[in-house]
Write a structure and sequence with these properties.
Layout (H helix, E strand, L loop, with lengths): L1 H39 L9 E8 L3 E6 L8 E5 L3 E2 L2 H13 L4 E5 L14 E7 L4 E9 L5 E6 L9 E7 L1 H6 L9 H7 L15
């Protein structure tokens, strides 16, 4: 009976240890998930933190400021023209900035930036927060299958002199590859939209 009682005690201890290990592994896994999610996030600010945006492409520069005087429009274009901004278009860009995550991070030497299209970026998005902090993301080439885009944030340089290159969603390029008139409210952009060229009238047939 004594041997049986000892066996039962050992079994109970083993079950207890197993439960502890399982609980610890579950907790550790949860901690790792949070850490990985945090590492994958590109920026840590929220939509409400953003005060102004500057979008620079190879053809134009758009300056946008949050409208603090009224609820609509939420954003105003300050240049190249002064007009109410298209809140839906700006919201799409903000979603990319706030919710965007990296697919992968690469460490490259400065002389490799051209290979990723980042020595002369196709577009740059500059963000100024209400606390005057500034952030920037530069967009380079698309990946080989056009599923993602190479990017660089805040001109980060690592300890070894290498530069961190991110692989991010094409949402960033889709958000900024727009004509100037698309950034304004629909009733305004009719005036700013380029007019199609009109051909001169054909000469009337000779009598």
């Amino acid at each position: 009976m004594k041997l049986q009682r000892t066996t039962i005690i050992l079994v109970l201890v083993a079950i207890g240890l197993g439960g502890f290990v399982a609980t610890y592994e579950f907790f550790l896994k949860e901690q790792q998930t949070v850490i990985q999610t945090k590492k994958q996030q590109i920026f840590s600010f929220s939509r409400d933190d953003v005060k102004s945006l500057t979008v620079k492409t190879t053809t134009h520069t758009i300056n946008l400021e949050r409208n603090f005087t009224s609820e609509r429009p939420q954003w105003l274009m300050k240049s190249p023209q002064k007009a109410p901004a298209n809140d839906a278009i700006v919201s799409y860009l903000l979603d990319a900035l706030v919710k965007g995550k990296t697919e992968q991070r690469l460490s490259v030497s400065p002389n490799q930036l051209a290979e990723y299209g980042l020595s002369k970026p196709s577009a740059t998005i500059e963000v100024i927060l209400k606390n005057q902090q500034k952030h920037q993301i530069s967009l380079g080439k698309s990946t080989f299958n056009n599923s993602y885009v190479y990017a660089r944030i805040d001109s980060q340089t690592q300890n070894q002199g290498n530069i961190e290159v991110l692989i991010v969603s094409t949402d960033f390029k889709n958000a900024v590859n727009r004509e100037i008139y698309e950034w304004t409210q629909p009733q305004t952009n009719i005036q700013l939209k380029p007019k199609p060229e009109t051909l001169p009238p054909l000469p009337s047939p000779a009598q």
